Amino acid sequence: MATTFVDRVVLHVSAGDGGHGVASVRREKFKPLGGPDGGNGGRGGSVVLRVDAQSTTLLDYHRHPHRSAPNGKPGAGDERNGADGEDLVLPVPDGTVVKDADGRIVVDLVGEGSEHVIARGGRGGLGNKALSSPRRKAPGFALLGEPGDVLDVTLELKSLADVALIGFPSAGKSSLVSVLSAARPKIADYPFTTLVPNLGVVTAGDERYTVADVPGLIPGAHEGRGLGLEFLRHVERCSVLVHVVDCATLEPGRDPMTDLDVIENELSLYVPDADLGGRPLAERTRVVVLNKADVPEAQELAEMVRPDLEARGLEVHVVSAVARTGLRELSFALARLVAQARAEAPEVAPRRIVLRPRAVDDSGFVIRKEQVGDGVAYRVVGERPTRWVRQTDFSNDEAVGYLADRLNRLGIEDALVKAGAVAGDTVLIGAADDAVVFDWEPTMAAGAELLGPRGSDLRVDPNERRTAREKREAARDRYVARQATQAELEAERRAGHWATARGDDED
């Protein structure tokens, strides 16, 4: 039989990478040094999960579990920025729970239009136009785009129903849903006919609620026997649990009281997700429906066990889905209990936007000393250093120098010295599985600073190009100095401190 309903999948998502910035120089006639004009790269597309009313199953993601958003476009010359990658929006059913690879709940998507960015696209790299400054007139490099997030998440669908029909296989749950609502589940006379939860909408007076037909439970369902573990999650959100008991079963060892105790034990052993704020199943409102009362022996048995069930404080209804008896009273009773549960439900507080500014003394990174082989290494952990390393083109010496300047300004070099690092030690920046390794050399003056700041061009540096007024003043100073020197030499000659060659010949 082809699979038509899937309520749990592992989804592999990849956000788009950011486009690279470009290093370009403007070239115009009579302007050989037009300056940098490289554009920025575009942002990579993000992967967004959004609740869609038209989506009822995760089957599409079961068949195609790998989803990727487009990358951002690279920049171009003439200050043209690359286009952003388009976000990939994945529709999911209402009530989808998203978990990370470790099983922790990331988000619970409830309500039409609710969405969550599960994988964020990478930033685009800056072009050399954006990197230019009064001190860096002509950068010969650009920054690379950041890679997008790549991760695996688990999607679990937990039905949003008010009432859950639970019980042994072939107890008549599907038949009951079909006569209470317009749902048309598969009905047959063999166990485990229902393989997927069926939802139906019931209207009783002014109240409207949904009923879920949960596949049959058997002893050990909380451990995965039968279909219990796969579909007990669909009971978690239901406020009213209805025990559908088969009073006409001929199986040995089966009777209404025993069936009820077995199912109650399975509910008490099932542990719902505490992060969702759900109550234990044992604390939900209970109703017992003694079904198949159209059979005379079943009618007698139902009347026999009814006082015992009511003595436990349970509300009991004797019905027949085939003869359609007792259904009106049952539907109105369920409507009353659902309305009561909705009134008692805590009010959902609006989501607040929490701002967490960085502390004043937060440097943005930490240095960790690690044992690597026979020696030690120093790992730099921080968002900004990791991002800067990813954006650096290590084939460009100027870009590497720019990275060194940024890390030095951030205070990493001083922190390494305080941590005990010496020249030649191994320094790692980035995640443990994708770190960039450096042989650390402390910054030292080597005469290169005499050529000007990194990324500057002395030919276009205004500090080296004098104005016309400055040139006139310098020429006047040279003229005055020359006149003073000539007057001094003439005075010395007349005083007889030295004689010309012609005067020596006459003597």
From TrEMBL:
Its Enzyme Commission number?
Answer: 3.6.5.-
Q: Where is the OCT domain?
A: 357-442
* GO BP term, example: ribosome biogenesis
Q: Which Pfam families match?
A: DUF1967, GTP1_OBG, MMR_HSR1
Q: Which domain of life is it from?
A: Bacteria
Stretches of Basic and acidic residues bias are at 456-480
Its biological purpose is as follows: An essential GTPase which binds GTP, GDP and possibly (p)ppGpp with moderate affinity, with high nucleotide exchange rates and a fairly low GTP hydrolysis rate. Plays a role in control of the cell cycle, stress response, ribosome biogenesis and in those bacteria that undergo differentiation, in morphogenesis control.
Its name, as the record gives it, is GTPase Obg
Biological source species: Lapillicoccus jejuensis
Q: What is the lineage of its organism?
A: Bacteria, Bacillati, Actinomycetota, Actinomycetes, Micrococcales
